[in-house]
Structure formats: C-alpha cells, structure tokens
Design brief:
single chain, about 475 residues, alpha/beta, Rossmann fold, 3 domains, 11-stranded mixed β-sheet, 15 helices, 13 strands
C-alpha cells in the first residue's frame, strides 16, 4: 500500500476511534451525579442512568455506579443484584447493605456507610428486570409486558445491559468483573454468568468475568425446601408433627410443591410460625410505616418454588423499618432529578419491590446446580455465603443444595474471625467456597456489615477467610 493511502487510512481510523470514544465519554459524563440531596461530601465519583436493553419493546434498565473510594483505576468492578424477584438493588443493596450511603430516618438525607464495599471495589447496582424500581418498558401495553417476565428474559437483557454499559464505560472492559447478589439473585447471578460465558465463547472481545458471590441464594428447589423444613423444625418454629406432615405430604421436585394436602399443611404451618420477621427470626418486625399504616400486613413475599407459607414482614435490620425510608427518599423529585431517574415519567411510584411482577413471574429454573457445574468447569471463582438466622432461604437449604455437587474438600470446616470474634464458619472445596455468617439474616451486610466486608475482601483476594 502506498504511503499516502496508509496515511489516509490511519487518519480515518483515528477519527472513527475519536468519535466512538467521545460518544462513550459523553454518555458517561451525562450519567455523572453532581450531588444527591442530603449527600455528605465524598472523594469518589458516582454515576447513574439508563441503558436500553430491548429497543423494540422499549425496555431500559436503571443503574447506579459508585467508584472506589481510592485508586478506582486499580480496583475491580463488582456488579450487585437484589432478588425478589422484583426487588430493587437501590432499595436494598445500595441503600441498606453495601453501598456508600445509607438513608436517614424518614428519607431526609444520606449518611456514609463505613463498611461500604466501595472501599475495596468499584460498584454497579442494577435494577433488574424492567418494571423494578426505575427500570421501565415503553411498550404500548406496559403492564402486560412487565408481567411477562421470567428467568430467561431477565438473563438475556442483563447481558445486553452489561455489554452496552461497558461500551459507555470502556475503561472497565479490561478490568476484573465479579457478579454478586442475594436471595433470588441466586438465579440472576449464575444465569447471567452462563450468558456471559456463552457470549465470550463466540466473540473476539470477551467480558472479563472472573467470578460470582451470592448470599442466602435460591439454588435447587427440592433441596432448598427440604432444608427449609428442617431449619424451621430445628429452630423450634414448627412442631414435630408439622415437620413430619410437610415431609410426607409435599413433593418439592415440582413447581407447585405438590397436592392439596401439602397446601393445607402449609396454611397450618403459617399460623404455627406466627407473625415474625422471617428474614431474621430474632429481630422485631416493622409494625408501622412512617405514614402510620401497618406495612407488614401489606407484604407477602413469593419466591418461586419455595414453601407457600410466606409470612408478611419486612426485610428488617436494627431499624426494622429502614425500607420505608428508601421509598420516601427515591420518590422525592429532587432525588430523581439528581439521579437522572424517571426521565420517562413512569405512571407509578418508585417502590422497593414490584409485587405484581413477583406474583406473575413466568419461568424459573427448578435447579441452578447444572450452571454451578458449568461455572466450576469454566474456572470461575465461586463463593456462596449464608446468614444463619434467615428462615426464607436458610443456611440448611444452602448446605443441602451445595452437597449435591459432591465437591472435594480442600480446607475442612473451621470458624473464621473478625476482630477476634467468630464471624461464622467456612469450608473450602475444589471449585467453590461456602461460608456462614453468624447472627446474620437474609440481607447479610445489613445485619453484619463488618463481617460482610471481610467476605468481599477475602473473595476478591482469593484467600480463605481469616482464622484466629
């Protein structure tokens, strides 16, 4: 090729690169948050906005990205999902658990979370799927579109989100990426990991996924339910007779959990357990919301395949009504403007969970264990942790499910420590690490923030949890 033609080609390629880079930088800059209402001064940058994941249906997912407190350019990207299905990662992960800010009582402002995971990583919270939080659909019949959601569509559109978000923030393309979450994210996270592995197998530009970590995660329908029945019994929440009846009358290999007899015993068991917070069996439940209504009576969780005797209650912490503050704060017009959220004027209030979507969930894998085998074979780092006072997705459920993998033990069961106190117990297998968190409920970082920070530190560094 003549030198003149080479120069023209070089200039053209440089121009294309400049246009693409400028476009990405422009989109990222448009997502930059100047300051949230009531936000304390911080040293890190944070961004929020929408990524379209289905142009035909007009579905777009909302996310909030917070850079690491120090040296963000040298730290990995940790992506977080909450479950439900139908619950917001802003309401729980970002605002109650691992994000840099927590919400003041009655939604008046923010204060710093000293145990935030952005002390060790860059964080990305995704409200998934469309219909959750600020994520939306512009389909003509939006309600019908939202209620046609299930595992497969959620995973497919989460992959589309990650691809498009990385185009907007290209400096993360070569960075280590980890997927994390809790509860029904026990489906979201491995299913997205599988989508990414499939995508990577057919592209020249793979996503640099290194591993996953999930807490109190739904894994296998049969084992999760058997473990839950045993957990309720061994923690004196149900009688010996109810324990026997549940095991005799319910078939947990199916989606509907069995017969009429099974449903009847579940109804009886619900009364037997009583009005407690099943997300943490040892804390008070939230009785009244900030408006004075009995919020607990309005909430019934439905996790596909799990026992149908879910008890009304809040995802409670030391302040059992903390979720109410998120619903006040994120419905403030000044907060939405600062977040670049609700730009299409969604015809409903932002809520922590979309219970209509939850109740109408279309497809849900009975077992995620086959994906665990694929992730292990693919060399991903896998950690599973469990707060041991959660009776929604119990530690017994997780132990029973993981036992089906028949993994070889590398480091036998031992207590791990934080500040010379037992943080929980752990066992390291070939291909997977399992850890319990002592005294933690369903949202582990809410109840045990320092222990949860130790979990992510050890996970990212690839080292076992500390012994005494």
């Amino acid at each position: 090729m003549a030198s003149g033609k080479r120069e023209i080609l070089f200039v053209a390629m440089a121009y294309i690169f400049l246009v693409v880079s400028t476009g990405a930088e422009g989109e990222a800059e448009a997502d930059r948050i100047i300051k949230l209402p009531g936000q304390p001064k911080v040293s890190f940058q944070h961004y929020s906005g929408y990524v379209t994941v289905n142009k035909v249906a007009g579905r777009a997912l909302f996310s909030w990205h917070t850079e690491a407190v120090s040296l963000p350019e040298s730290k990995p990207l940790v992506i977080w999902f909450n479950g439900g299905p139908g619950c917001s990662s802003l309401a729980f992960g970002a605002s109650e658990e691992i994000g840099p800010f927590k919400i003041k009582k009655n939604g008046t402002g923010l204060y710093l979370n000293k145990f935030s995971w952005n002390t060790v990583a860059n964080l990305l919270f995704i409200e998934s799927p469309a219909g959750v939080g600020f994520s939306y659909t512009n389909t003509t019949n939006a309600t019908s579109d939202i209620l046609n959601t299930g595992d497969q569509r959620t995973a497919t559109e989460a992959l589309e989100f990650v691809i498009r978000w990385l185009d907007r923030f290209p400096h993360y393309k070569q960075r280590d990426i980890y997927l994390t979450g809790e509860s029904y994210a026990g489906h979201y996270v491995p299913q997205l990991a599988k989508e990414i592995m499939t995508y990577n197998s057919r592209t020249k530009y793979p996503i640099n996924l290194k591993g996953i970590m999930v807490g109190n995660a739904l894994i296998d329908n049969n084992q999760d339910n058997l473990g839950l029945v045993d957990y309720l019994w061994t923690h004196a929440l149900i009688s010996d007779e109810s324990h026997r009846q549940l095991l005799n009358k319910c078939d947990y290999h199916t989606k509907n959990n069995g017969s009429v007899a099974c449903k009847l015993i579940n109804q009886y068991v619900a009364k037997e357990i009583g009005q407690i917070d099943r997300y943490n069996i040892f804390v008070p439940r939230c009785i009244k919301s900030s408006s004075g209504t009995n919020n607990a009576a309005q909430r019934i969780l439905h996790l596909p395949h799990l026992l149908p005797f879910s008890i009304p209650g809040q995802m409670a912490g030391f302040d059992p009504c903390t979720e109410n503050y998120a619903e006040i704060y994120y419905n403030r017009p000044d907060v939405q403007k600062a977040l670049h959220a609700n730009t299409t004027k969604i015809p409903y209030k932002w809520s922590a969970c979309n219970w209509d979507l939850n109740q109408q969930w279309k497809d849900s894998d009975l077992s995620i264990l086959p994906i665990y085998n694929e992730m292990i074979a693919g060399g991903l780092k896998i950690w599973v942790y469990s707060g041991d006072v959660d009776s929604v997705v119990s530690v017994t459920s997780t132990k029973y499910s993981l036992a089906q993998l028949n993994l070889t033990t590398k480091i036998p069961w031992y207590p791990w420590y934080v500040n010379n106190q037992v943080g929980g117990w752990t066992e390291v297998y070939e291909g997977l690490t399992f850890a319990t968190v002592r005294g933690a409920g369903h949202e582990v970082p809410l109840y045990k923030p320092q222990e949860a920070l130790q979990l992510i530190k050890s996970f990212l560094s690839g080292t076992p949890l500390p012994k005494l």
